[in-house]
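User: Hey, quick favor. My workstation is busy. Could you predict this chain's structure for me?
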Amino acid sequence: MALSYDHIKERLLQKFGEEVTGFEEPHGMLTFEATAAMNLKVLQFLYDEDDLAFRFLTDLQAVHYPHDKGRELAVVYHLHNLVENVRLRFKIYVPVESPDVFSATRLFESANWMERETYDFFGVQFVGHPNLKRILNVDEMDYFPLRKEFPLEDQTRIDKDDDMFGR
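Assistant: No problem, here it is.
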């Protein structure tokens, strides 16, 4: 029997009940969310269960939603079952004031650098990470450049020629 999104959803709901929510399939990929406190439990379940076997972490990143109070930062995991060639997307949300998320480095070694990059650009604090420090930006930076906290350009500049920039 091929692994289906319905089966994955059913197994998650059996195990976690209403702690997993937001099931949808944008662009043909099963997507769901859970609380930040549940991230390792859900990841471990998806990894351990032989009928699910999501044992490859394809990607881990964050998204900043500045207007979603209490859920400003989303941490997104992309998991892959290599045997069945099935992928899914798992999201957790944390407030920007305390962006603490449990590290998945003990489950997926590849999470090490992905969590460091996500910390570097978004400021997500991965609790339990073995070496959480900046990986691409300089240590002296006191901000996280991919958060949407700053305007893209200064609209009051007078040294720009709009014709030159196609405006």
